[in-house]
Amino acid sequence: MSVQRVALVTGASSGIGAETSRHLAARGYLVYAAARRVDRLEALQEPLIRPLPMDVTDDDSMTSGVQHVLDEAGRIDALINNAGYGSYGAIEDVPPAEARRQFEVNVFGLARLAQLVAPHMRARGSGRIVNVSSMGGRFAMAFGGWYHATKHAVEGLSDAMRQELAPFGVQVVVIQPGGIRTEWAGISIGSALQASGDGAYAERVARMTQVLAGPGGSESGSDPAVVARAITRAVTARRPRTRYAIGLGAKPVMVARRVLPDRAMDAIMARAIG
Fold it and tell me: How far apart are CA 213 and CA 45, in angstroms?
């Protein structure tokens, strides 16, 4: 008799998280789909998907959520740290409270959940922790400094986590999405205009938001299912890669970052945002 494998997916109310929940359920996983707003999980009404209220900025919420899964299912085979968002604006314009909140969601929530599931996985001698970063964790562009900083942090934490947990049979994988058709672009555009829509950076920010909202921007991005398939491979492969760069622009941008000097990359980024 086969064992029912269990996955915990954060940020599951839409986009990549919702698609990942469906893909893993289709592979026979019992999926706990976690989100702050459980009402937005109604579209995930499938036999192997269970909604789980969780706020990744609230330690009690994360602790009780993980314990609920362990009490009910008895195990967590895969943690998919997908919750995150992009808050844009010039570094000097973004309020410190918003910068801290982005780190709370994108970095500290991810790290805390890894802390909560790692002891269980170590004790069992197996497990997968999949951290959703971004191609933006390998470079930076103007007006996305705080967001890029969070994703660079995810990359570094994941590398250290992978080395620490490997001797216990726990594998850590990083997913680096490129341009994807999700709510991300709308949130980043709105935050950029709110933070820097007036003042010294207003003209450049207006051009950037027009590019993001235009035909060559978010609407031309890859379907979230592309990323969900990569996450599913990372979870199910016997020997997964340490990183999966996937989606519009991810691979060419990161190749360019490796081979080009800083000022050449700066020029490319400046042209990209108009």
Answer: 31
